[in-house]
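In this section we walk through a basic example: taking a raw amino acid sequence and producing a predicted 3D structure, encoded as discrete structure tokens. The instruction is simple. Fold the sequence below.
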Amino acid sequence: MVGCDDQPGAGDGQTGREGMAERPVVSDEAGVMLVEGRGLGSRQTLNVERERRLGNLATPSNLQKLQTALHAKAKAEPEFRFYALYDKIYREDILAYAYACCRANKGAAGVDGQSFKEVEAYGVGKWLGELAQALREESYRPEAVRRVLIPKPNGKFRPLGISCLRERVCQTAVMLILEPIFEADLPPEQYAYRKGRNALDAVKAVHSLLNTGHREVVDADLSAYFDSIPHASLMKSVARRVIDRRVLHLIKMWLQAPVEETDKRGRKKRTTPNRDSGQGTPQGSPISPLLANLYMRRFILGWKKLGLESRFGAKIVSYADDLVICCKRGADEALSAMREIMGKVGLTVNEEKTRTCSIPDGSFDFLGYTFGRCYSTKTGRAYTGTRPSKKSVKRMIDAIHADTDRKLCWLEATEVVQRLNLRLEGWANYFCLGPVSKAYKAIDNYTIPRLRRWLCAKHKVAGRGYTLYPDEYFQEELGLIRLWKSTQNLPWAKS
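The resulting token sequence is shown next.
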């Protein structure tokens, strides 16, 4: 260990037919996006929406200086282990900013039922002062995590943990301190939950690899990644950089926190599945993305140390538990090697969703996009590109269907259109690469008839309402966005 003086204190866009990258068609302030294999509660969606909400939340200068110093130290000395971080977690400015981040993210109450409104009525300063005192005296103990089940497109459910506000603020404070340290160590193959990186960057990276000879692809998926991360191995990964025992104890307590579930009859039951199995991170908590990235790093480093990158000419692109391995050769062997490494680090490959394919003859979906052969409408020339996947389009149509349900006829038409516009803007902001016109047109062709039907039901209009509500009415009178029109002057967006 080193003395106290040594520790800090206080891609190119995808090219289309004319070699141009398609731009987002609407403002970046739009609402949430939809991503392949995820619903509105997806990690990608939540991350994008979080960045949008926190866009005007300035990081305090003292915290910026601390984060810069921590990152610089970690980058300059890869073997350095940080040992005096705990006192920074309960600093007044850091807890205040952590609270502001949680407040901007909103979110439901935990098992104690405490809301932001109640905290503000009690006094934020007083509430944060009590949390700081509990941390300072080491009497802080986390409450149970409230578990809810989010429906998945395949009929299954994704467990989501909702922590109490105290835990969310405390975890955010820890994340603010640890993130710059571990960011220095994360490899470039990882794109999720990192500043300056997002799902679109991962899509562009895969597209670039496919067009530089990496055309044998392992399309991989992990089973219950967040729920199966081994605690002992994860804590070793943390302790490789952080040896402050009080910080490690905090993380361990959060990993082992009880889970409270409510059955169909409203009865509450508490269990300790993570502590009993020694596995799992509380998916949905502020600290979980950082821990998930840190553990995925083990697989990527193992892949490289075993020489598999050079053996198969392979590059990994990872976004949380979704990853593809783009190889120049030997995709089937690469898949077998991946299974072996994942088994060694305690993770399980989802065999139903994992396969190999060869581009351009085959195709695969990743982060909402389909990668494969596309054709130029002008020359008929084939090229390797991306387009919104059929599942992504269907999921968007299902969401529009729900937004225009007859049960919502009590809403004003302007409010329904505003909701639809936010949804359409967010979707188009994400699905803006490659030929998108067919997808945009399919969504437009569903939205207008569906909204017309909703208006007829609301105003009890007989018939289909074509005369009363022509297509022009929705755009000119209600201001409904038409996605397809936004690409008419972009020839590379057409297919």
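Looking at the output, two observations stand out. The CA atoms of residues 18 and 34 lie 27 Å apart. The longest helix spans residues 437-459. In the next section we compare this with other chains.
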